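Lay summary. Proteins are chains of building blocks that fold into shapes, and those shapes determine what they do. In this project we predict the shape from the chain. Here is one chain we studied, written as its sequence of building blocks.
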Amino acid sequence: MDVCLSIWSFALDFQRHRMDIARFAAVAHELGLDTVELVDYIWLSAGQPLHSLRDAGLRVCAYDTATDFVHIDPALRQQQVKLAYAAVEEAVRLGARLVRLLPGRLKEGVTYEDALQMVIESMSSVARYAHNVGVTAVLEPHEDVVNSAHTLRYVAEQVNSAAFGINADVCTFLLMGLDPVRECAAIGDICKLAHLNDARRVRRNYGVYTYRSVRGERYAGTALGDGEIDIRGCIEALVQAGFRGPFSLEYLGMEEALVGVQKSLHHIRKILQEVEAS
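And here is the predicted shape, written in a compact code that computers can read:
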């Protein structure tokens, strides 16, 4: 089962100009990885140096962009669909099989039912476009429209395309007040990508960036195994449902990124080794 490294794991280092694509590629190679996941705004701001990845012998497993398909104005929705088309085109250039998209969030004046339909119609269009070039569009649970296994499966059934799949983001399930293991088990058969990340509850005045759950609790990102998510349970649930990867390490912690990534990668590899041996 493949493990890849999301460039988001080093987002802060890129923002602080302590990391570039060449260094990121070198780190991934040194960690024994051969695939990475790219995020559009980091990749584009870095100048899209594809040679840096190829020189390190790296492939791209997925290309991510932050779409929001929930808009009353059809022109704004089409604008987001075109953003997704552009991501598909970049994925083709990169040799990536997957494009990760987000559904969007509710807006004033939009009912939940209408918002869900906007996501379905937009993703159907993107899936048709992706299918023509051999790419799969994967939808990640996010915000307040599509955020659970139930809604993800409903969208998948409505889109009904071989070029559509799901990205199981385990931390999102936690923040939605759901059991990540149970959610993974419910969608593992339609997952094409899985973000492995971790977090733990902290006090409201915690000194670093935190994520707010639907229950109003605050969570801080951690290395995998140091938070509250049952990473082993999530991996086992996905594998038992038929998922075979790629598992993408998306480190969300605030400690030194390289340290957190190394610790997280060790945790993932140990679990996968045991799962594969069982």
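What the prediction tells us: The two ends are 14 Å apart (CA to CA).
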